[in-house]
Design a protein that fits this description.
By secondary structure, the chain is mainly alpha-helical. The protein has 17 helices and two strands. A hairpin with a 7-residue loop joins β1 and β2.
Length: about 500
Amino acid sequence: MPTFWLVLALIALSVAGFFLGRNRALVSAGGNSKDLHSLPSYYGHNVALSALVPALVLLAIWLLVQPMIIDQRVSGMIPEETISEGSTIGLVMSDVRRVAEGLDLAVAEGAMTHEQARNLRSEFSDVRGRLGEIGVALGADVRPEVLRAAQTYRTLSNTGNIAMTVMVALVALGGFGWSYGRTHKDFRARNVVEQGILALLILAASLAILTTIGIVLSMLFETRNFFSLHSWTDFFFGGTWAPNFRGDSDLSILPLLWGTLYISVIALLVAVPIGLFAAIYLSEYASKTTRSFAKPLLEILAGIPTIVYGLFALLTVGPALVRFFGQGENGILGVEWMSGATSVLTAGVVMGIMLIPFVSSLSDDIINAVPQAMRDGSLGLGATRSETVRQVVMPAALPGIVGAVLLAASRAIGETMIVVMGAGAIAKFSLNPLESMTTITTRIVSQLTGDTDFASPETLVAFALGLTLFVLTLGLNVLALYIVRKYREQYD
């Protein structure tokens, strides 16, 4: 909450700076805005941005760096011999932060004073019970070393927050005073403001790129740690996925990759024909009234959360397939090919329904972008509307349609909740779409769920799986770009 009020104060100072800078410029010009180098608003924006932007940058950096420094200092206070077997320093630090937050909450609600929180001792007080009275639930009694670390963590955090507030305020006031002092009628405020905005735009673009690079590097480092503990040949060429957190494990990606591609192919077999035909109808045959009603209604599917699709797969599509394929003599087909509601077909069909708006909406926009002159020329030569669509419009729109399909494929490969609830959790090779299988994303979630040891290959394998998935989707995007460039030259 102090950070929230600090940001509000910075915004208020920035607003005040805008009006003060604007008025100072007008006063320096004798009230005649024509004597100013720039419009009066530029002078106000210069003061506002000088007060706000550097302070916000410092605040963001401080909020990122301070927790890491405090964690490093506090973790050094916990002796290694006090870490119980099966636990890690990371889990102990989680308890430390939880107790520190509980002490802050107790002080905020008046349950204890700052002095009492600072001098509290677990040997003489039921810390767990006292914090539980104010709604802070702890899984076990607070050990003395954890309580001392939490008190130090809390002290360092409070000190850091005070220092942060002072430094941010000084930077904001310094920027305000510096820019306000430079404000006069001959100051080139417009040039400075435009250069500042350009710098902000470059920073925003750089943050997106740096974030991607950071994600890739983090996966690379953890993947390297995994391959130092587990054979890369078994991971890429083995045939079994059998993690065992208590011993040797068979961790091959091939069964997971097979399940991922199998479910994705079924999803595309559902989504591409329906989505493409819907796009052709909406763009070439539907009236304006029908299009204005049907297109938004179709795109509603894109806004449904994937967990809802997962429930739909588990409670509706799966049981329907079981009644059709899996009830023996009592079933519709009189056979029992399907033993449960989870299967590749269940997840693939529901995922295909989810992907329909991705394919239809993008394809519709691409088809509408084909010049009308090409249609008129085809119709003028005697072709029917269907022949024009098949022989003129679709070839011209092919690069974009291929891109839409590959985008849907990337979306299908990265889907998690539908396959968790609709496909099952069995990693194996099988051509039967009525059997349960699993995917890479499902295994990533499974391997990183719970109190896991991030030094074991069974946990680190999640990063290797994630990196492989990243490379796979990147390859699809590169392929889409290649196809678009190759065929676009024929229609430019």
